[in-house]
C-alpha cells in the first residue's frame, strides 16, 4: 500500500521520478561523475556524512571488464538512522542510505534509490509510519532532485 501511495504522490506532483517495487528512479542532467559530484555536494551541504563513493565501472576496469558508468554514494545522518536501529537493529543492514547514479544503454543518466519505507517495511520493530521514514524520504527526494538538475 505504501508503494502505491508513493507512486501516486509522484504522479500528482508531476515529478520526473517514478517508483517501481520500492525503487525510485529520477532522470538526471549530465554524465554520471557530474551528477554524483552534485549529489555528494548536496549531501555534505545538508550536514550529512559521506561514508563512501563507490565507482562500480572503475572496479570493473581493474579486472579487465567493462561496465557503463555507475557510482554509488553511501551517506547518512545519525539523527535519522539511529532511531530506526533502536527500533530494530536489523535496520543497520539498510543504513546508511545509498543512492546509485548510472548510465543506461541509451546513455541516459539516472539516479536511483530504495524508498526508506519499502526498505524498512519487512522489519518487525519498525512501526508503520515511523517519523524517521518520512524524514529519510524527504531528504532523499530533496538531495536527488537537487543533483538531477545540478
UniProtKB/TrEMBL annotation:
Keywords, comma-separated and alphabetical: Signal
Pfam families named in the record: DUF302 (PF03625)
Superkingdom, natural source: Bacteria
Domain DUF302 span(s) in chain numbering: 54-116
Signal sequence segment: 1-19
Record InterPro entries: DUF302, TT1751-like_sf
Protein name (record): DUF302 domain-containing protein
Species: Rhodalgimonas zhirmunskyi
Amino acid at each position: 500500500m505504501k508503494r502505491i501511495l508513493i507512486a501516486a504522490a509522484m504522479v500528482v506532483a508531476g515529478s520526473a521520478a517514478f517508483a517501481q517495487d520500492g525503487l525510485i528512479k529520477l532522470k538526471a542532467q549530465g554524465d554520471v561523475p557530474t551528477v554524483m559530484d552534485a549529489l555528494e555536494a548536496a549531501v555534505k551541504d545538508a550536514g550529512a556524512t559521506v561514508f563512501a563513493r563507490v565507482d562500480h565501472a572503475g572496479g570493473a576496469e581493474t579486472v579487465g571488464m567493462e561496465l557503463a558508468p555507475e557510482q554509488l554514494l553511501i551517506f547518512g545522518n545519525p539523527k535519522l538512522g539511529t532511531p530506526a536501529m533502536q527500533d530494530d537493529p536489523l535496520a543497520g543492514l539498510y543504513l546508511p542510505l545509498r543512492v546509485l547514479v548510472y548510465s543506461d544503454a541509451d546513455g541516459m543518466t539516472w539516479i536511483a534509490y530504495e524508498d526508506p519505507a519499502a526498505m524498512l517495511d519487512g522489519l518487525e520493530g519498525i512501526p508503520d509510519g515511523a517519523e524517521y521514514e518520512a524524514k529519510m524520504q524527504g531528504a532523499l527526494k530533496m538531495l536527488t532532485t537537487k543533483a538531477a538538475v545540478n
